[in-house]
Amino acid sequence: MTTRRIRLHVLRNFLLYAGLSLGLNLSSCSQKSAPPAISDVQADASVAPGDSTSADAAAFQIPVEYYTLDNGLKVVLSPDETAPIVTVAVYYNIGFRNEPKDRTGFAHLFEHMMFQGSENLGKMEFIDLVQKNGGVLNGSTRFDFTIYFDIVPAHKLETMLWAEADRMKGLKITQDNLTNQQGVVKNEVKVNVLNQPYGGFPWLDMPQYANKNWYNAHNFYGDLEDLDAATLEDVQSFFHTFYSPNNAVLVVVGDFEPAQAKQWVQQYFAAIPSGTVPATPNLTEPVQEKEQRFTKDDKLANKPALAFAYHMPVRNSPEYYAMGLLDQILLQGNDSRLHQALVQERGYTGSVGGGINAELGNMYNYNGPMLWMGSLVHDKNVSADSIVAVLDQEIRKLQENGIDQELLDLALVKMRSSLYDQVSQMYGFGRADLLATFALFDDNPARINELEAEFRKVTPELMQKTISEYLRPTNRTVLIINPQAQS
Amino acid sequence: MKKIISISLSALLAFSASVATAQQQTPPEGGTPKDFTLPAKQEFTLPNGLEATLVPYGEVPKVTISVIVEAGNVHEGQDQNGLADIVGGLMEEGTTTRSATEIADAVARMGGSLSISVGPNQTYISGDALSEYGPELVALMADVLQNPAFPASELERIKNDFKRRMNLARAQPGTQANEKFRAALYPNHPYGRELPDDKQINAFTLEQVQDFYQKQFGAKRTNVYVAGKFDSGEMKEAITSSLSEFRAGPESSIPVAKPVTKGDMIVIDRPGAPQSTIVLGLPVVDPAHPDYVPLNVANSLLGGSFGSRITSNIREDKGYTYSPYSSISTRYKAGDWSESADVTTEHTGNSLREIVYEINRLSKEAPSEEELEGIQNYEAGLFVLRNSTPGGIIGQLNFLDLHDLPESFLTNQVQNIYAVTPEQVSETTAKYLNPKDMTLVVVGDKKQIDKQLRQFQQELKKQAPVTQ
User: B454 vs chain A: nearest CA distance in angstroms?
Assistant: First the structure.
């Protein structure tokens, strides 16, 4: 059992998330063990001349206690006494890109099955248990993991640990339950994609066009026929293959006593047997050497739209952090280059959105090839070529004029603030999300406090190198929506 | 306590290594509830009538600031549908001393954001920043509020963006359904206006924009809310120094709507639609009414939560839909209840039948103590969640201010939720949610749903009146 406790700076990332439906996303967190104070981090502040906010920022630390049970379950505890609330999140290390090849959409369908009954909680009973204890819950399937989380009054922590352990032990699903959820999921696809203008654009569409490896490039929501073809045996097999404690992380954030929480975690999770988890398939994408352009007809859309996407540098590489800052400069906020060029100066659109892992997460919570993507809806009198020309022009400007320390500092301030938003998102959930994915993918949830230092290592030279290598047109996919409905 | 449900074991595919057919376990109850008190606030009023509320909250070094002005679509003239949106849009285009780009750059240096949105009753200037920039952000937002440049050069672009946004909204089945629903309930009030079309938007002039701002904006209609981590003394000073000179302007005034209750059905054809988008509902009480809390509890139990009866029925039992929900929409001194669902086309009639069945069942039979207690706990839990983020806190305070509600609306809310009895839930449902009085809007493939809808309507007419 390893326990790490780390201090350090916090950064911010992008407020881009789509899969969760709880609505409220402004939140606040704190911790009693590390109250913000000007302390031993003054030295770090001096690293960034012109950034007067570093001292406060550096002092804001998130407590992280990390250990692993004998059965392999990773556990992260992060107390926060701001409100009498506790968030319990279980992340399984299986996302939609790794689902079986003849069962598109299965990872997400399976997520629904986790609410359909376990050993001690029948159908609807998990949901009822959370609600009648004053809490909310949800699940979500992403590229590389599947989330289950409950936000409950603080004194109900034990209840939720018991319930999450219960469904980690095993499911009890009937054919009726499966048939029911096949209906629900097909309706989900209809309401979010098939009956909506711009349904699936660009979040579901772009990976299918930009990527070449099936794992990264298939329909993650699933073809309706594949959803229909799923059997109880598929459900059983998927659970056995991926839903073992050694393929998961449990995160607790909020107002609780860590010693007591550990005791409950031991009591309820320790006896769950580990499983044999298959090796991750090869997710590698070939290096793209030629620009790709695609057009998709949309019979419900009434205005054209355009999305662009560039393959990202490898996660956690120096260039990856540089791309995080380039995203801040080019795409985030009204001051960003693309907002200024496309919205403010030319009026091509009212807004341009996007980011890294846009609409399905953020730049931290994935584990494989990824895209930096942007998109906009525009009028018919603006051509796709003129939009792409602006994109190229803004990137070229950065390349030709160079990126000085002042611009880097601006990007760092924006980055830090957006990370605060991320860790504040939806009560304890935003914080739990980073802790969980850093535990799963990096075996180091304390990275949550180390991010700003990584971004600070980025130099103007590295920014230039990253622009040349990754923001080249030949690394780009452009997807155009051809609208077929009347305005 | 957990109820053991009866499932035929032979129908189960139990596939856990640790499955035992022994007696089921029940969840641990948990400990004793921790106290929750609403975060303390500091309020002050400037001589010009502007009210400010400061709520220090949390430890994340950010501050959220909302400047909310009672000037919205309700204040537009008869032929000015959407003018308030144009005013809000053009206010983002700079002040007499700063261009839009300069504002964007200044906000970015604070690690912040600043945006303006317009609702039916109010215009929201919303900002956030790293804590140390709070006072600077207040000054910037005060400038945006008091000194808009309304640059003529940007009017066409703002109008064009607004037209595009409205066109996109009109293409969505949910927006279409809601638009018709509001129009049916509020025919003689701005709440019932449909989304402005290109022609209406094209007609707006800069003079109209300036005139609307002059007539509708002022300190008496403005509330400033600050929540998050900040220095209260500095913040009060910043608000006082930057907003004391704002002209007092008009008194608060929102025309009270008189909603219409009419058992009508409106169908909008969406050929080939794989789903029907349903809105079914009617006018109810406003938040100040004593029945509001019981109705809210009834709504939560009936369709307003994941575990609610309607959702359990048409989603978790029948699989007709993904995200059905019922809710009470609060308007100024008015309100309406509705159930919304996107249901699979061939089950349009069945879905409506089940929704009405659940409403009638709750009208006729009081829920069990246990079911009610569960939903009371849920609502009490949501109350804590709603008051546990800077944005949520501001939302709650603005709700009180907009609807002229006393402080006790919040401080007694949990107590009031728990005071509701099972009989009250069914009586309130019977009193306010009579399906025969409901307006039904369906956006779907007429060819496939006409017959289903006719049959549903005939059945509804034949139903005996609900008696309490």
Answer: 23
Of B157, B164, B391, which is closest to A377 when you measure between CB atoms?
Answer: B164
Residues of chain A neighbouring B28 (CB-CB closer than 8 A):
158-159, 162
**Nearest-CA residue of chain B relative to A181?**
B319
Of 3.30.470.10, 3.20.20.70, 3.90.850.10, 3.30.830.10, which CATH number belongs to B42-243? 3.30.830.10
Q: Considering only CA atoms, which of B414, B333, B427 is closest in space to residue B378?
A: B414
Rounded CA separation A173/B253 (Å): 57
Structure tokens at A95: 């996302």
Local structure of B94: helix, strand or coil: strand
pLDDT tens, position by position, A227-243: 999 999 999 999 999 99
- Which chain B residues contact residue A153 at CB under 8 A? 33-34, 381, 384
A180: nearest CB among B128, B132, B317: B317
CB pair distance less than 8 Å for A187 and B319 = yes
Strand order in the sheet with A65-68: A65-68, A74-79, A248-254, A85-92, A146-153, A136-141
Both tokens assigned to A39: 């302390």
What is the full DSSP assignment across A18-56?
-S------------SSS---S-TTHHHHTTSTT-TTHHH
Look up the pTM and report it: 0.91
Tell me the per-residue pLDDT of A95-108, one tens digit each, with 9 for 90 and over. 999 998 888 999 99
CB B278 within 8 A of CB A191: no
| C-beta atoms of A122 and B5 within 8 A | yes
**Residues of B with Cβ-Cβ distance to A132 under 8 angstroms:** 307, 373-375, 377-378
Q: Do B381 and A152 touch (CB under 8 A)?
A: yes
Q: Are B229 and A57 in contact (CB under 8 A)?
A: no
Furthest-apart CA atoms within chain B: distance in Å? 78
Of A158, A175, A191, the CB nearest to B322: A191
CB A464, CB A390: distance < 8 Å? no
What is the location of CATH 3.30.830.10 in chain B? 42-243, 264-462
Candidates B288, B290, B460, B307; CA nearest to B375 is: B307
Which residues are within 8 A (CB) of A383 and not within 5 positions of it... i.e. 6 or more apart?
none
Does position B145 have pLDDT exceeding 60, yes or no?
yes
| A120-139 tens-digit pLDDT | 999 999 999 999 999 999 99
pLDDT tens digits, one per residue of B402-452: 999 999 999 999 999 999 999 999 999 999 999 999 999 999 999 999 999
Q: Cα distance from B93 to chain A (closest Cα, Å)?
A: 9
Q: What superfamily does domain B264-462 belong to in CATH?
A: Metalloenzyme, LuxS/M16 peptidase-like (3.30.830.10)
Q: Which residues of A touch B129 (CB under 8 A)?
A: 417
Residue of A131, A330, A412, A423 to mutate when probing chain B, most B C-beta within 10 A: A131
